[in-house]
Each structure stands twice: as structure tokens, then as C-alpha cells.
Amino acid sequence: MAQRKKIEVFSAGCRACDEAVDLVKRLAGNDHDVEVLDMHQGHVASKATFHGVRSVPAVVVDGRLAACCVGHGVDEALLRAALA
Q: 6-83, what's its fold?
């Protein structure tokens, strides 16, 4: 059996976030610890920044941003190009 993991889901309470929370809870089952963190709270937003979260929903497993959530967020160069 796999080692028990700590899973943190950074959420803004939107529908996409709720769907991600449901997915994580379903996949984690009773084998892992899941905590849902509200990005509207300042200390949570700071923690998200520390982990490299650039958009929500985002998932951190044992202190590391999950590969499914890396590299998202607003890309300034692409936004500038779209606005040109």
C-alpha cells in the first residue's frame, strides 16, 4: 500500500474548484489526508505563493505542487500579444 500523503487543494470556491475538490477527494479516498484551503484568506494566498501556485484550483501533495498544476496562470507575453 502507498504511503499516506497530505493533499492540499487551493480553492476560490468556484465551480471548477469544487469539481477539483470532488476529484481529489474521490481519488484520495480514505488512504490520504485532504485539506481544502480558501484562497480568499490572506495566509492561504501566501502559502499558495510559496508553493508556486499561479492559478486555482491547484493541488499540492506533500508540500510539492502537483505536476497537473504547474505552469498555469496568466502569461504576460501571451496576454500582450492577444491585446495587440
A: Glutaredoxin (3.40.30)
